[in-house]
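From the pipeline queue, job 12 of 40. The input is one protein chain; the requested action is below.

Action: predict structure.
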Amino acid sequence: MTEKGFPPPHLQYLIIQETTRVAPLFLEEFLHSLVAACPKLEYLSLQLRLPRSFEHLDPEPTPITLANLRPLYKLCGLRNFFISHLCPLAVTDDDMEEFARNMPLIETLSLNNEPARISTPQITLGCLLHFARHCRELSLLRLFLDARTCHFEALRERLDDASIPELPISDLVVGYSEISDPGRLHNSSGSC
């Protein structure tokens, strides 16, 4: 990824818009290189969607998993992260707990809330509790999630500390998520 002097190690803001197919393992390798080359990165945007006219070239894209994003944990100063991809991220509520725990200073987070190919996401409204617990600076959260069911109480029972703080975000964007009861998203008490 790097040639001598590029990217500069003091780089703080980076937007990458890729117009060709990006395999998740390539993304993971790229992130490892990026973390090593740009340890002061505060803002990272990865736009990895093919233009609509070329989507047919990737008929079965491989989804991005949490394992592909783990190199980001080493970017201690990362405050803003955005990623878009052709298909939904293959992440679970437990993955979101790990992500939130390892990214406590994140302020804006967009995890592919509007994928071009729609399928049932594996994360639910319950993942919001993880962000409330670990990401106290989070003001904008964009997710593609399954908002049809809610099991906050079951999740609360699994957590060590029953006193979950209120989610600090001012903007929650659920993109193409299916919502069976929009009132659930307005309930700040954490119950459905």
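Job complete. Residues 24-37 form the longest helix (14 residues).
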